[in-house]
Structures are given as C-alpha cells and as structure tokens.
Amino acid sequence: MDNMLYVSMTGMNRVMDAQAGNAQNLANVSTTAFKASLDNAISQKIDGPGIASRFNVQTRDIGPDLSPGPLVSTGRNLDIAIQGEGWLVVQAPDGGEALTRRGDLQVDATGIVRTGDGNPLMGEGGPIAVPPYSQLTFGGDGTVSIVPLGQGPNAQVVLERIMLVKPENGTLERGTDGLFRARDGQLPPADADVRVLSGHLEGSNVNMAEAMVEMIDLARQFEMQVKMMRLANDNADVAAQLTTMGG
Questions:
Q1: pLDDT band at 40 (very low <50, low <70, confident <90, very high)
Q2: Nearest CA to 211 among 25, 4, 83?
Q3: Residues 75, 185: one domain?
Q4: What is the mean pLDDT of the chain?
Q5: CB 165 within 8 A of CB 187
Q6: Cα–Cα distance between 82 and 195 in angstroms, integer?
Q7: InterPro entries, per this entry (predicted)?
Q8: 187 and 222 part of one domain
Q9: Is residue 50 located within the same domain as residue 141?
Q10: Phi then psi for 78, rounded to 5 degrees?
Q11: Residues sharing a CB contact under 8 Å with residue 77, sequence separation 6 or more, in sequence order
C-alpha cells in the first residue's frame, strides 16, 4: 500500500508543478511578446538507505518557447515589432544589459525611451534619449528619427539606432525579471540584418486553446492520483479488517 501511496504522491507533485507553469502561461496570454515556459518530467533516483528501486518525479524547466508571437497592427508610432529573428537590448533593473522582444515603447518625462515594463531601450551608443519633438519615427533598420519641436516635417533628424542583436538559437535563458540573457553572460554583437516593423506589436506566443486543454487534462490527472490514494487507503482498511478477522 505504501508503494501505491508513494507513486500517487509523486504524480500529484508533478501535476501541481505542471499546472503552476501552465497557469503562468495563461496569465500572460495577452502580454506583449511573452514567451511561454516549457517543462517536462524526468525520473530522479532517491539516494540513501532503502529499496534501490525508489525514484521520484521531478519537473525540469527546459526553457522558454522562443517561437515568435503573432504581429498585431496598432498604428502607433511608438510600437515596434521584430520581424523574424532578433532581439531588442534594454537596460535591466540590475544595471546590466538584457534582451527582450517587447516593443510597446514610451518616452518618459526626461526623454528616455522605455519599453512597456519600464526598462530603458538601448541604442548603439547607450540608452536612447530624445529631445522635445513633434514627431518620432523608427526605421526598418532601427534608426530613431525625430522632427524637433517647432520645426517643419522637412527638418527630420536621425538621432540613434536601436541596438538589435541576433543570438544563436538555444543560447538564451529567462531571468526572474522576465528578461533574457545569454547563458555565457555575454551580450551578442549588433546585427544589421535584424529588422523592425513600426506600428506593430508582437503578441504572446501562448496558445490559449492549447493551454486551456492542458489545464483540464492536468486537473483530471490530479483527480486520478487522488482516487489512487483513496483506493490505497481503502485497501489498507480492508487488509486490516481481514487481519482482525483472522485473529
């Protein structure tokens, strides 16, 4: 009976971990450029005295799903989306540099261009700052141009170019701040081939329908494990009654 309870308990732990990850994905289904988390289950041998066949189930984070989300047209000049592969560089809360594909930009009161989550957008010369302007535009190659306040449309000035990079596949990991970094800690070099599309945003790559189906499937798996534990308890009660009768 103990074996049956143990197997059911480890299964319940696995389902709970998977459900937590799936719930996080669902919560970010409308977050700009969010990348879904992926995990799988692996067996882990339990060391120490006891039966050598003891194993536990461990949930292993295999990293984010970096496939692009759908492009949504917004018509807003400060919205940009990466076309194909590539990343924007931002200044992270810890002062270092990190990567994101979130392009819902805004200009704060001091002229610093920031992403929707408040991180300064990096240009090839550092954080991008713009003086007072009447129009701000982003070129397909990442150039940042403005029409200075009080000037005509022919007075457009190129200020900076967004720092755009394209790291090797499989080299990125997501930090606790939601930003991405290379596993070796090095910032990839600027890549002139990365293109941006103004007036668009990249949506989350979480498929709501698939996530909802997985949530229901995981709930059923959890219920099955609970039933197995109840069955083990019922079997133990019956065994105890039989032992008493035999005495």
A1: low
A2: 25
A3: yes
A4: 87
A5: yes
A6: 6
A7: Flagellar_FlgE/F/G, Flg_bb/hook_C_dom, FlgE/F/G-like, LlgE_F_G-like_D1
A8: no
A9: no
A10: -90, 0
A11: 135, 136, 137, 138, 198, 199
Clarify whether residues 29 and 135 are in a common domain: no
- For the residues 113-127, what does the mean pLDDT come to? 96
Q: Rounded mean pLDDT of 121-150?
A: 95
Residues 75 and 169 in one domain: yes
Report helix, strand or coil for 83.
strand
Q: For residue 43, how far is the Cα from the chain centroid?
A: 25
Domain that holds residue 106: 71-201
The answer to whether residues 161 and 123 touch, using CB atoms and an 8 Å cutoff, is yes
Regarding pTM above 0.85, the answer is no
CB 103 within 8 A of CB 97: no
DSSP 126: E
54 has a pLDDT exceeding 70: no
Structure tokens at 81: 């989306």
Burial 98-131 (b: 16+ CB within 10 A, else e): bbbbbbbbebeeeeebbbbeebbbbbeeebbbbe
The candidate with the shortest Cα–Cα distance to 96, out of 212, 175, 159, is: 175
pLDDT confidence of residue 68: 94
Contact 64, 28 (CB under 8 A): no
**Residue 227 and residue 246: Cα distance in Å, rounded?**
28
Higher pLDDT, 197 or 239: 197
Kindly state the tokens that stand for 96. Answer: 């270092």
Residue where the block lists tokens 């070129």? 139
Return all residues near 58 (Cβ < 8 A) that are at least 6 apart.
Answer: 14, 41, 42, 43, 44
Number of structural domains found in the chain: 2
